[in-house]
Amino acid sequence: MFVVNFKLDFKKVFFACILIAAIIATIIEFGSGNDSISTSKKDENYDYVLTEENFTTVLKQIHENIDENLGKTVKVSGFVFKMPDFKDGYFVCGRNTVVENENNVAGFLCNYSDSSKLVDNEWIEITGVVIKGEYNGVMPIIKVGNINKITAPSNTFVK
């Protein structure tokens, strides 16, 4: 016959259970990666980080609430799009989107002093601040602080 005799320390068992529950809660909370605006630790420095999934939603939110978004920081990638009637220093950082079976460009009007050096359809990533401006009416404009040339993504369309 084999007999085991042991004594449980309920304080230690209780502490271990709480510790395990805290670890599980942390994994569930931070492991989901479901943040639609900020996608990495370096992106936490911006109020808005536009991605393929949230591009049109955030664009619409900023356009509909210009005053509430003045001074907010933005990080967005897209292609350079210029119109003949743009003032010097202006371009659109845009992405392709489909509305009613038509390919359209959706994006932010941007103000950048060296915009003349940018080439149409060139892919860039910009960071900047939302300001209020005018182009066929009042609209938000991104005052570009930093700009980098990038490679076009495999999917140039956004939702």
What descriptors fit this protein?
five-stranded mixed barrel, 159 residues, alpha/beta, 23% helix
Q: How would you portray this structure in words?
A:
The chain is of the alpha/beta class and 159 residues long. The protein has 3 helices and 6 strands, in the order αβααβββββ. It has a domain of 109 residues: OB fold (Dihydrolipoamide Acetyltransferase, E2P), CATH 2.40.50.200. It has a 5-stranded mixed β-barrel with strand order 2-3-4-6-5. The longest helix is centred in the first third of the chain and has 22 residues. The chain is elongated. About 8% of the residues have low confidence.
Write the layout of secondary structure elements.
Elements: H1 10-31, E1 48-49, H2 55-64, H3 66-69, E2 73-81, E3 90-99, E4 102-111, E5 123-134, E6 138-149
Parallel strand pairs: 1-2, 4-6
Antiparallel strand pairs: 2-3, 2-5, 3-4, 5-6
Briefly characterize the structure.
The protein is 23% helix and 35% strand. With 159 residues, it is an alpha/beta fold.
